[in-house]
Amino acid sequence: MDKKTELENLNKKWMEECQCELKKTATQAVPGDGSPEAEIVFIGEAPGRSEDQLGRPFVGAAGKFLEEMLSAIDLKRENIYITNIVKYRPPNNRDPLPEEKSACREWLLEELKIISPKVIVFLGRHAMNNFFPALQISQAHGKLLIKVFKGMSTKYFFPLYHPAAALYDGSMREILMEDFKKIPKIIKEIEKRQA
């Protein structure tokens, strides 16, 4: 079975089985989107209003900014994979609660297992803290993290500020753009280590 079919089956299964409380208030699930063969997986926090309506991650203002940054490093959205730690929109875009994150965790881990990317890019502190609970995004952004997780082939992680945060704060936008431009170098570094 190819990765695309595996992901489709996985999403169908979890849309039925996921016990996340947010299911009750969201319009629909927002599974990951993009290339099943991606070398880079971006993980955000949770779907917002546009995502909830369209059923695709990062289609609102933050998504447009993400696409702008991707094009700055010669990447297209269809060559990467993008998902969220929580697959349903929290009411009024509030932060996802710990129990909502844990209800969607297996879904995320299984997505990552199928894709098996070279690097996972965290968009914001919620995504990063899901894997590195003690780190602070203000200290970790733009630095390559290496950690082996049981059952995961990927051990390279790269935290960034969330694109939405940069939309509200101009100084953060510059930092995010600078960090984002390190991604191609990081891919080369990982390839060297794996050679």
UniProtKB/TrEMBL annotation:
Residues 31-181 form the Uracil-DNA glycosylase-like domain. It comes from the Bacteria. PANTHER family: TYPE-4 URACIL-DNA GLYCOSYLASE (PTHR33693:SF1), TYPE-5 URACIL-DNA GLYCOSYLASE (PTHR33693). One of its GO terms (molecular function) is uracil DNA N-glycosylase activity. It comes from Candidatus Nomurabacteria bacterium RIFCSPHIGHO2_02_FULL_37_13. One of its GO terms (biological process) is DNA repair. Keywords: 4Fe-4S, DNA damage, DNA repair, Hydrolase, Iron, Iron-sulfur, Metal-binding. SMART domains: UDG, UreE_C. It catalyses: Hydrolyzes single-stranded DNA or mismatched double-stranded DNA and polynucleotides, releasing free uracil. The keyword GTP-binding does not apply. This is Type-4 uracil-DNA glycosylase. Pfam families: UDG. Its EC number is 3.2.2.27. The keyword Membrane does not apply. Gene3D superfamilies: Uracil-DNA glycosylase-like domain. InterPro entries: UDG_Type-4/5, Ura-DNA_glyco_family4, Uracil-DNA_glycosylase-like, Uracil-DNA_glycosylase-like_sf. Belongs to the uracil-DNA glycosylase (UDG) superfamily. Type 4 (UDGa) family.
